[in-house]
Design goal:
single chain; Butyryl-CoA Dehydrogenase, subunit A, domain 3; 7-stranded mixed β-sheet; 51% helix; globular; binds flavin-adenine dinucleotide
Length: 395
């Protein structure tokens, strides 16, 4: 499957922006001399994000995939900042009141304001729905208490989407977990400094602390008298599809760099591309590229036809993230000592993309999700904590 003309034209615009505005500033972005949000805001106008929203094109699953792939080719870190913004903005824009949509949802979705979304907590990562942050409704207000860990963009976020348990919900009961919008400056809200990380240096990650944070009742997205509508799962599923597109960008970049180096580097009197062990690595990266591209288009098609399944998303995320990390390592190996240097993209690509074997739900959790979805079809229900129930039999 290939992009149609409209999507190809859009990809060309995004690619040109990345080459012009991001690639020359990679060192500054990585070292923190340039803020990813400065570039993100300039993307807003350059890519006409507002126009994509008003025309409805932003809801086309190909659009975030194009953005993610092209951004990841130059900076997976900046890409993470952007997709975290989109995840926060899309949730508010589709579920918020008119006022919230105008003040927070659209500015975040169009990349004018910095947004983050926070599900993970110090004591709940893979077991995400065991979260302890509480939301209490008091008259016209919602009061939040708790803390969040590892939230992308949190150190600079102007709009924070906090997943909290409404009073009355048992631990692990996801039907009582709702997203609540909190704006920077609200008393009781604090964010920690950026955490020091292995990679994704162009994406600040941080903790969030909520101490009797009061927001208007309308900031709680959803009807508290009804079960929550799986907002967190939907955001995670959309994020996983975008992760696959990011992986494709990383693999393409690594293949390009590896081919150039293999042709130019001469050892034993020949370009190293003449050695079959180099050729094998190039072939392996190419196979990863083809598989990840095919699974990205299959996911997009399934989204468009509303046939996407949990296991399809998890399988693609698991495969693509492992394949991209291996491709980056293969490219580094082809480049020898140079591959170990910061100045060459595969080294950074490896450090950045490694996150996705953990973030967005670890790859172990993806494997459990695939098995859960498969077994459910055969009357065998399992949960991620190792429990099971056979249809027609007692627990
Ligand atoms: C850079 C970065 C950015 C992030 N951004 C965000 C963000 O914006 N918003 C957000 O909400 N979160 C974010 N996260 C958090 C991320 O989603 C979690 O780190 C991830 O879900 C794993 O949770 P954990 O770190 O608590 O690991 P744990 O859940 O403690 O897992 C530790 C290990 O145990 C394994 N494990 C756990 N349960 C099982 C099981 N049942 N069976 C087998 N193995 C199991 C895991 O696979 C893993 O290998 C981010 C994390 C990082 C590092």
């Amino acid at each position: 499957m290939e992009l149609d003309e409209t999507h190809q034209a859009m990809e060309d615009v995004v690619q040109a922006f990345c080459q012009r505005e991001i690639e020359p500033r990679i060192d500054d972005l990585e070292s923190g001399r340039v803020s990813p949000f400065e570039i993100m805001r300039s993307m807003s106008d350059a890519l006409d994000m507002g126009g994509l929203i008003t025309s409805g094109a932003i809801a086309d699953p190909v659009v975030p995939a194009i953005l993610a792939k092209q951004l990841a080719r130059v900076s997976p870190g900046l890409c993470l900042s952007v997709i975290s913004n989109l995840g926060c903005g899309a949730t508010i824009a589709t579920r918020g009141s008119a006022d919230l949509v105008a003040r927070c949802g659209l500015p975040v979705l169009s990349l004018k304001k910095v947004g983050c979304w926070a599900l993970t907590e110090p004591e709940s990562g893979s077991d995400a729905f065991a979260l302890k942050t509480t939301a209490r409704i008091e008259g016209d207000e919602v009061v939040l208490n708790g803390s969040k860990a590892f939230s992308s963009n949190a150190p600079e976020a102007e709009v924070l989407l906090i997943y909290a348990r409404l009073a009355g919900g048992e631990a692990g009961d996801k039907r009582r977990i709702f997203p609540v919008v909190v704006e920077r400056g609200t008393p009781g809200l604090e964010t920690g400094p950026p955490l020091e990380k292995f990679g994704m240096h162009a994406s600040p990650t941080g903790d969030i602390f909520l101490d009797d944070v009061r927001v208007p009742r309308e900031n709680l997205l959803g009807d508290p008298d009804r079960p929550a509508r799986g907002t967190a799962e939907q955001t995670l599923a959309s994020e996983r599809i975008v992760i696959v597109a990011m992986c494709l960008g990383v693999i393409e970049r690594c293949l390009d760099e590896a081919i150039v180096h293999a042709r130019e580097r001469v050892q034993f009197g020949k370009p190293i591309a003449a050695f079959q062990l180099t050729q094998q690595k190039l072939a392996r990266i190419y196979v990863a590229q083809e598989n990840v591209r095919n699974s990205m288009f299959a996911l997009i098609h399934a989204q468009e036809t509303r046939t996407v399944s949990e296991r399809q998303v998890s399988a693609a995320k698991w495969y693509a993230t492992e394949a991209a990390a291996s491709a980056a390592l293969d490219a580094m190996q082809i480049m020898g000592g140079a591959g170990y240097l910061r100045e060459h993209a595969p080294e950074r690509m490896f450090r950045d993309i490694k996150l996705w074997t953990v973030g967005g739900g670890t790859n172990e959790i993806q494997q459990l999700t695939i098995a859960k979805d498969l077994l459910r079809q055969h009357g065998f229900e399992i949960d991620l904590a190792g429990g099971f129930r056979v249809e027609g039999e007692g627990a």
